[in-house]
Prior knowledge:
Elements: E1 2-6, E2 12-16, E3 20-22, E4 28-30, H1 32-52, E5 58-66, E6 72-73, H2 74-78, E7 93-101, H3 102-107, H4 109-124
Helix pairs in contact: 1-4
Amino acid sequence: MLDFEIGLDGSGHLFCGGAAEKTQDGVLQLFEDLVAGLTARFIRVLGGLYAAGSYLGPVDAGVAVTGLSTAVSSYLSRDALRRHFRQPYGRDVYRRTGRFPAPSMAQDPRSIARELAFPLARAITHESYDPFS
């Protein structure tokens, strides 16, 4: 499920109900690529909106992923050699926010998404995978 909303005030919200899924054996896997990709695309869309409106000021942006306490990396789960390094995230919620100039959201959304979402990928993969590379 993907829910995308833009408010009349220029605010935006993206909700994805599929950032993590339970496997047949009951293991909750976080899709790091999905979180990274959707974050970058959402930043780009908002950046385009602000550019079209000639807004040049600051924008507060953030990422929150909930229900993670037992989640493991889908990247580590796919790799038979690394599978034994999987460890649950250990916290229920990941949150990261930042303030960015509106023009940079359209010009370089990947860098902003990286700043917001990469710490989660780094933590859950034990620094072995970069979904932004």
